From TrEMBL:
This is Protein NUCLEAR FUSION DEFECTIVE 4-like. Residues 320-532 form the NFD4 C-terminal domain. It is found in: Membrane. SUPFAM superfamilies: MFS general substrate transporter. One of its GO terms (cellular component) is membrane.
Length: 550
């Protein structure tokens, strides 16, 4: 147990969370491929299979997120953000030069490298944000995950709508935004986002109960919902004039900046509190052990971590700290891994192919569907984090239950898209976005609860390997081959397919995959119900304890 002496870190934690939210607002650029994929396809004269393999290269970049996971326990958060922002600047900057026709289209393999760099950049940003904030707010992992992942979901709509408002959906200018904006935001976040050791001081400035944290989370969630509704209203109101579009952009930036009011309020509150009491030093203790083996002493003034004695090496139980190799030896990890593949892999296939799914059923402009997927992905992420936390505290409901519900709903969405009634792409965009968001948001805290926080950065990125794997299987192979089988050559040399039949079999196969994922999630829920009963008991005990009055 290492002790730190210094002032309370409440303001710093919340300022870090707000800057983390800003990073997440720009780190979903990996989901925007449909906004510029058609320009790349026509410039390079690609078939749909070749284009889909470019999107796979983008997602393969996430496989190298294991490097970010390894680095997360060894280097400061600011270095993780710096690496990610520079990679994005290079990867998307090079694509901008190609689409703008400043340089000639590069060889296919070189374009794959550019997309891979852009894809990998987000893993450094996401790892920096998630690992730091989950550790800073370890008693509220569900709300933290839902909030941060929710803003990742919104980021696609933020980029898409800003580009539509300011640059009339110009793909070159869109790519320039993807290169420059994340770099600028990450440079800002480097100054404020850092891990703060939990405080055990009884002083009001350092001790913050769950009720207060929940209040602040609810405020930021309310800001997020306002942003989502604002974006949705812009998307659903048709064409906008230049003046209105610029006004929309200014108001959107103001809305995204508003959460900074929370750490400012906390700072003033702490300043007044310090002025009204005698000077004192606050002791802060970094706790490396998992949630379930914390034990409060009889006085309730501090938490002591119980460390098993002896030299005997044993496989840890679910809920205890795992190294990456110990996690890989558990059945639960692989059930979680494969079920995650069924959900996010199929969802990525829709996002990567949205442009051509829209063209196939008669839509020339698919930006509305990209935005709908993003916005409803936000609602899925932010709602599932808070709802799963509520039912965990109330009735010990395993988080995997919510993953199972999202899988079966996603399967129904794919069936609707396969049948292709009028408006099916609107329904599909909403359902896929919502369920994809639930899947991502639930899995983040669940992995930390099953395998602990010690190697969380690496375990999280191991699970995220499903993104390139799912993209390759469902987008690169399945959707690419089946689309090209029905397509004909266009004047530019690219393949084109028109009609609902182009993706019908793809949707049916992805629906079956989701049913398999549903079954695996039910198995995981059954296997982890004892763990969640223990977490529930721990939270109930903590809630019943009275705070110390100074």
């Amino acid at each position: 147990m290492r002790a730190y002496v210094g002032p309370g870190t409440t303001t710093g934690r919340w300022l870090g969370l707000v800057t983390a939210v800003w990073v997440q607002c720009i780190s979903g650029n990996n989901y925007t491929f449909s906004n510029y994929s058609d320009a790349i396809k026509n410039l390079m004269g690609l078939t749909q299979l070749q284009l889909n393999n470019l999107s796979v290269a983008k997602d393969v970049g996430k496989a190298f997120g294991l490097l970010a996971g390894l680095a997360s326990d060894r280097v400061p958060t600011s270095i993780l953000l710096l690496i990610g922002s520079v990679e994005g600047l290079i990867g998307y900057g090079a694509q901008w030069l190609v689409v703008r026709e400043t340089i000639a289209p590069p060889p296919y393999w070189q374009m794959c490298v550019y997309l891979c760099l852009g894809g990998n950049s987000t893993t450094w940003m996401n790892t920096a944000v998630l690992v730091t904030c989950i550790r800073n707010f370890r008693q509220n992992r569900g709300p933290v995950s839902g909030l941060l992942k929710g803003f990742v979901g919104l980021s696609t709509a933020i980029f898409t709508d800003l580009c539509s408002a300011l640059f009339a959906d110009d793909p070159a200018k869109f790519l320039l935004m993807l290169a420059i904006v994340p770099f600028a935001v990450c440079c800002t976040a480097m100054l404020f986002l850092r891990e703060s050791p939990p405080s055990v001081s009884p002083s009001p400035a350092a001790k913050e109960d769950d009720e207060t944290e929940t209040k602040y989370f609810n405020i930021i969630n309310a800001f997020a919902v306002v942003v989502a509704v604002y974006l949705l209203s812009f998307d659903m109101t048709g064409e906008h004039g230049q003046l209105l579009s610029r006004a929309f952009s200014i108001v959107l930036i103001i809305l995204l900046a508003l959460p900074v009011a929370i750490p400012i309020y906390i700072w003033f509150k702490e300043a007044i509190s310090r002025a009204n009491r005698a000077p004192e030093l606050d002791l802060q203790v970094r706790i490396e052990e998992p949630l379930l083996i914390e034990k409060e002493n009889e006085e309730g003034t501090e938490k002591a971590v119980i460390i098993p004695e002896g030299d005997e090496k044993r496989q840890p139980s679910i809920g205890e700290e795992h190294t990456i190799f110990e996690a890989l030896r558990t059945v639960d990890f692989w059930i979680l891994f494969v079920s995650f593949l069924c959900g996010v892999g199929t969802g990525l296939a829709v996002m990567n192919n949205m442009a051509h799914m829209g063209l196939a059923v008669g839509y020339d402009d698919v930006s509305i569907f990209v935005s709908l997927t993003s916005i409803w992905g936000f609602f899925g992420r932010i709602a599932s984090g808070s709802i799963s936390e509520y039912f965990l505290k109330k009735s010990a409901t395993p988080r995997a239950i919510w993953n199972a519900a999202s899988q079966i709903l996603m399967a129904m969405g794919y069936i609707v898209m396969a049948i292709a009634p009028p408006g099916s792409l609107y329904i599909g965009s909403i359902v896929v976005g919502l369920c994809y968001g639930v899947r991502l948001s639930i899995t983040v805290p669940m992995a930390s609860e099953l395998f602990g926080l010690k190697s969380y950065g690496l375990i999280y990125n191991m699970i995220i390997l499903n993104l390139p794997l799912g993209s390759f299987l469902f987008s690169g192979l399945l959707a690419g081959y089946l689309y090209d089988a029905h397509a004909t050559k266009s004047a530019s040399g690219a393949n084109t397919c028109i009609g609902a039949h182009c993706y019908r079999l793809v949707f049916v196969i992805m629906a079956i995959a989701c049913v398999v994922g549903f079954g695996l999630d039910l198995i995981l829920a059954f296997r982890t119900k004892k763990l969640y009963r223990r977490i529930h008991s721990s939270k109930v005990k903590k809630a019943l304890q009275q705070p110390i009055k100074c």
